[in-house]
Structures are given as C-alpha cells and as structure tokens.
Amino acid sequence: PIIGAGTYASNESCAVSATGTGEYFIRLTVAREICALVQYKGMKLQAAADEVIQKRLTALKGDGGIIAVTPDGQLAWSFNTPGMYRAKLAEGGKPQVSIYHDEP
After folding, report:
1. How many angstroms separate the Cα of 85 from the Cα of each of 10, 65, 100, 101, 102?
2. Can you give the pLDDT at residue 44?
3. What is the pLDDT of residue 90?
C-alpha cells in the first residue's frame, strides 16, 4: 500500500489500513484524510471513516474500505462494496468475524 492512500498511522489520531481501487485511494489520500479528520476536526473515528468512504470515495465512484483504530482503542471500519472481510477482538470480548453489511 502507498503511505497516505492505503495505509497511514499517527499517534495523534489513528492508524488506517485500506483496500480498494487504488487510483481513487491515491487521489483522496484516504488513510491520511481519515486521520486528519480525527486529529484536526475532532471527529470520532467512525464518523471520519464514513465521511471519506461513504461520501467522498463514493462520489468519485471509487470502491473499497478501511479498518482503523485510535490510540485509545476506538475501532472502526467502513466500506462501500457488497462485502469486506473483517474481524475484531477486544479485550474480554469474543472474536467477531464479518463479511457483509448486515453483519455487525
């Protein structure tokens, strides 16, 4: 992945890993933009992820998704495709594995 587009991390905001049609992710610097929204606009991680993936990426007709985490442990994912393989495990919780939108 290209730094800023497909992957990015900052101790002041979040870490993002992305997958999708690369040209659109490069054009929007998707991973970095999500981190910037968290750091400079004070957005919650999920809101920032949805802003970039559901609104900006979709407006360009790009497709893909991200998973992200903040230094304090907020987890988020957002995707505009029919499905995206994803999983999470929080301390004390049970593993969650999902593919489609209607799964948590």
Report:
1. 24, 10, 8, 10, 13
2. 98
3. 81
What CATH number corresponds to the domain at position 35? 3.60.20.30
Does residue 29 fall inside a structural domain? yes
* Residue 39 located in a structural domain: yes
Distance CA 86, CA 38 (A): 22
Q: In what order do the strands lie in the sheet with 7-9?
A: 7-9, 15-20, 64-69, 75-79
Residue-averaged pLDDT of the chain = 95
The letter for the amino acid at 44 is K
Q: Considering the domain boundaries, does residue 49 fall inside one?
A: yes
Residue 55 pLDDT = 98
Specify if 89 maps to a domain.
no
> Residue 54 gets which letter from DSSP?
I
- Count how many domains the chain has: 1
Give the mean model confidence (pLDDT) for residues 56-60.
Answer: 98
